[in-house]
Amino acid sequence: xxxxxxxxxxxxxxxxxxxxxxxxxxxxxxxxxxxxxxxxxxxxxxxxxxxxxxxxxxxxxxxxxxxxxxxxxxxxxxxxxxxxxxxxxxxxxxxxxxxxxxxxxxxxxxxxxxxxxxxxxxxxxxxxxxxxxxxxxxxxxxxxxxxxxxxxxxxxxxxxxxxxxxxxxxxxxxxxxxxxxxxxxxxxxxxxxxxxxxxxxxxxxxxxxxxxxxxxxxxxxxxxxxxxxxxxxxxxxxxxxxxxxxxxxxxx
Length: 252
Hints:
By secondary structure, this protein is of the alpha/beta class. The protein is 35% helix and 19% strand. The protein is built from ten helices and nine strands. The longest helix has 14 residues, at 58-71. The chain starts with a strand and ends with a helix.
C-alpha cells in the first residue's frame, strides 16, 4: 500500500508528486486544501516512504493509486498531479472515469517527453553513501552536476538517516537508473477523459507548449489550460498562492 498523509474532511482530493519528489513537497498546500476537502497526499511507488519495487511504469503507478482508493473506500475523487504525478493522474482518470470527478494536471502534457534528467541522475549516482557523507558533503558532490540551488534543495529533501551516521535517499535510485525511459512515455492514444480537466503550466516552463493544446483537447475534450506567469516547472512551489487560487476556483 502507498504511504499517504490524510488531512481534512469532505470530498476526497488526491495529490500526486513529480519524479524524485514525495508527499512532503505538498504539505503546505495540502493543509490549505484540507479546509474544503479530505486531502490524501501520496508517495508514489519507489518514492518517499512507499514501497520499492523493480516494477515501475505509469500503468502500475496508476493501478497503485486505484487500489489505494479502493482500500480507503474513496469515490468521486478530485485529483491533482504534478509532472510525473500528472501523467499518473491522467492515466488513472482515463482508465477509471467513474472514480474521478475533476482532474488537475500541473505542468505536464499527455505527449512523449525525451530523457532530460541525465545530469540529475549523474549527480545522485556520484554520492557514495558507503563513505558516510554528511548532508553538506552530499550537497557539495551534487553541486558539480546540479548547479541550480533550488533543484538541489528539492533533491536534498529525500535524504534521511537510515541509521545513526548513515544517510540514504528515500527514492529507489537503482530502479530509476535502468527504468528512466518510463518517465517520458506518452498517454496511450485512445485514452480519453470527458469530465472537467484543468491544465496549469508555468510561464517559464517548456513542458506544455501552445502547440500541445490540440493533443491535450483530443484526450481531454472538457479541458482548460491556464498559465502562471514568471514560474518554471515547479509552479506550485514558486507561486503557491496563485496555484491554490486557480485550483480552488476550478474545484468549486
